[in-house]
């Protein structure tokens, strides 16, 4: 039982990263009706921004994270202007292809600047962690879970309790009607891109001390986050959170009890199972068409 609880804690920590990136997917799906396949590269760019602030500029850790988050917010707006805005009236497919091209471009730019060698970052806290009963709670995994929880609560407060949240929801439901009601639709979409870039960047910064910071780190995170989005229910915010946590636990348990080399396969096996049994996901609704 002690080993199981230890693995559960670790799986939830990894799953929280997938959940944050999956939330970025969901926000853009709901606001702009597009899938941003560069969402994982947001995590990679955020992690490398933290590397620059810490290792190159020598800034304190928390200040480095704060600067990196602000830069990611600006980066999200620039990304929207380059990939979404010129193609916004041409349907979803051109924008999706544009984001795929942008993800390849970002990886190659970082590869040119830093090379293929991974970067190592220290943890946020000096303490290795705390012991709770027979479970050792690693400080970095604990910080991931706390940060993810705070971000989810903040997102709920923004969307449900503020005027900005109401405008964002109206934009996601019907852009034309929202525009007729005086809501600045363009500003809402740009804010969503900016916020999704921040979420991806924070996910990359949080996981950076656990994994090596490398050019390819964002690709696998994005695939699993998108799988979490499908498992939870396409476009569902609660589904993205629960799907991400479930994937993290599934791959951790599979690696511990079955096979470490195939740990990534367990997440996608879970996705295939849901597609076969419940294709609409946990929180999705069945959609049927009348002949």
What does this structure look like?
Helices cover 73% and strands 3% of the residues. It has 291 residues and is mainly alpha-helical. The chain has one domain: Orthogonal Bundle (ABC transporter involved in vitamin B12 uptake, BtuC). Strand 1 and strand 2 form a beta hairpin. The chain starts with a helix and ends in a 14-residue tail after the last helix. The mean pLDDT is 85.
Provide key terms for this protein.
two-stranded antiparallel ribbon; mainly alpha; globular; ABC transporter involved in vitamin B12 uptake, BtuC; 3% strand
Strand content: under 5%
Helical region count?
A: 11
Principal-axes geometry comes out as globular
- Outline the low-pLDDT stretches: none
The CA-CA distance between the termini, in Å, is 53 Å
Indicate the CATH architecture. Answer: Orthogonal Bundle
Number of strands: 2
Assembly status = single chain
Short précis:
With about 290 residues, the protein is an all-alpha fold. The protein is built from 11 helices and 2 strands, in the order ααααββααααααα.
Break the fold down into its secondary structure elements and pairings.
Blueprint: H1 2-32, H2 39-56, H3 61-84, H4 92-114, E1 129-132, E2 135-138, H5 139-161, H6 163-173, H7 175-180, H8 185-207, H9 217-232, H10 237-257, H11 263-277
Helix pairs in contact: 1-5, 1-6, 1-8, 1-9, 1-10, 2-3, 2-4, 2-8, 2-9, 3-8, 5-6, 5-8, 6-8, 9-10, 9-11, 10-11
């Amino acid at each position: 039982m002690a080993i199981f609880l230890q693995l559960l804690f670790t799986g939830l920590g990894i799953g929280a990263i997938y959940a944050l990136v999956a939330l970025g997917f969901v926000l853009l799906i709901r606001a702009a009706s597009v899938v941003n396949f560069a969402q994982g590269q947001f995590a990679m760019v955020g992690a490398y921004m933290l590397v620059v602030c810490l290792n190159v500029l020598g800034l304190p850790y928390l200040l480095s994270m704060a600067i990196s988050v602000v830069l990611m917010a600006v980066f999200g707006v620039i990304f929207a202007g380059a990939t979404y805005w010129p193609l916004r009236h041409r349907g979803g497919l051109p924008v999706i292809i544009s984001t795929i091209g942008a993800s390849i471009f970002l990886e190659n730019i970082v590869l040119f600047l830093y090379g293929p060698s991974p970067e190592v970052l220290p943890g946020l806290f000096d303490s290795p962690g705390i012991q709770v009963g027979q479970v050792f709670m690693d400080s970095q995994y604990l910080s991931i879970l706390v940060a993810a929880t705070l971000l989810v609560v903040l997102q709920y407060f923004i969307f449900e309790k503020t005027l900005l949240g109401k405008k964002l929801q109206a934009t996601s439901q019907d852009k034309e009607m929202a525009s007729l009601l005086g809501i600045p639709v363009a500003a809402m979409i740009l804010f969503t891109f900016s916020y999704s870039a921040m979420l991806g960047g924070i996910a990359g910064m949080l996981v950076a001390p656990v994994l090596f910071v490398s050019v390819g780190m964002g690709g696998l995170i994005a695939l699993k986050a998108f799988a979490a989005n499908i498992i939870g229910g396409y476009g569902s915010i609660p589904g993205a959170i629960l799907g991400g946590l479930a994937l993290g636990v599934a791959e951790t348990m599979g690696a511990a009890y079955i096979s470490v080399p195939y740990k990534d396969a367990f997440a996608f096996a879970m996705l295939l199972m849901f597609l076969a049994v419940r294709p609409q996901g946990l929180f999705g609704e069945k959609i049927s068409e009348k002949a």
